[in-house]
Amino acid sequence: ALNLIAELPRGPVGQILCLEKEVLIVEKNRLLVAPPSGCFFSWGFPDNSCAFGNYTTEKHFAVSESLCDWGETLCATCPNMTTIITAGSSTVVCVWEVAVSKDKLTHIKLRQPLYGHTDAVTCLAVSEGHSLIVSGSRDLTCILWDLEELSYVTQLAGHTSSISALAINDLTGEIASCAGPLLYLWTMKGQLLACTGTSSGPQADILCVSFTQRHEWDSRNVIVTGCADGVIRIWRTEYTRTQLPGPPEEPVSPRQDQIERDGSASGQGKAWRRCLMLCQELSSGQSVSQRRSNDSPAITALAMSRTHATLLAGDAWGRVFTWVCE
Hints:
The chain is mostly beta strands. It has one helix at 256-262, and strands spanning 2-7, 13-18, 23-27, 30-32, 39-42, 50-54, 60-64, 73-80, 83-88, 93-101, 104-114, 121-127, 132-137, 142-146, 151-156, 163-168, 175-179, 182-186, 192-195, 206-211, 223-227, 231-243, 270-283, 299-304, 310-315, 319-324. It contains one helix and 26 strands. A hairpin with a 4-residue loop joins strand 9 and strand 10. The chain is 2% helix and 52% strand. This is WDFY family member 4. InterPro entries: BEACH_domain_protein, WD40/YVTN_repeat-like_dom_sf, WD40_repeat_CS, WD40_repeat_dom_sf, WD40_rpt. Keywords: Repeat, WD repeat.
């Protein structure tokens, strides 16, 4: 069942956060500072400054010039109450130390600028549990940084267009990156696990991505992408056997060794490979099959409820919808 639960008056939905008792929603260029702080961080002002506001009253209570020298901010993320990470046209990922409470900013200081990109940074993701920051840029690079050490770890290589969305699975540490219509899945060490590749028909650019994280090895876990054509696409990973050149590979899937024992002769030169399979398409408008690409607002934000019973999506018109998951 599809339900409209909110409409923001000022344009596209930027972030949806599901807490135990409530759902928090902010528009583009705003970021919720780790609850229970009750405040948001906001950017996109003409002088490149930033501001802090009260989520309930929607009013700004502090403006900071700290970001002014770092060009236009295009993205931000917040791993905990005392850290905000920003990036944008300057190509530098800035890690800020902040002290902020309900209606007061007492401290904001640059802990570390992270240098590595050569063009504007378009998206960020962070996982405190895995001590990982991921930044994606127009220069086609994606860089992993260590959140504690604030140092370069590795690069996710091989994207063919500007990075548009990133997510980290807090359970497994796996990373999803999106570039144009393509979805990539990586290990936290930077190895490519799977990519959606080119499929038939026109593919819409992906603007946001999210993991479902029921239990670590739950096969029902999926990756959800929100696209510019207003469609939400749900992907699951499957293992497929592939013929390999050269000697047989080591088993890489949990089910592999059983099969190898059952038919070791036939298993020569074959290995398991992860594949991303499209398993569902959701649209808030008419059915996906009869849509024209210009009549539906883009999906700009995604979230899963804490029980994973509901999928929430925000669009470019400021609307937030919920779907009850099967």
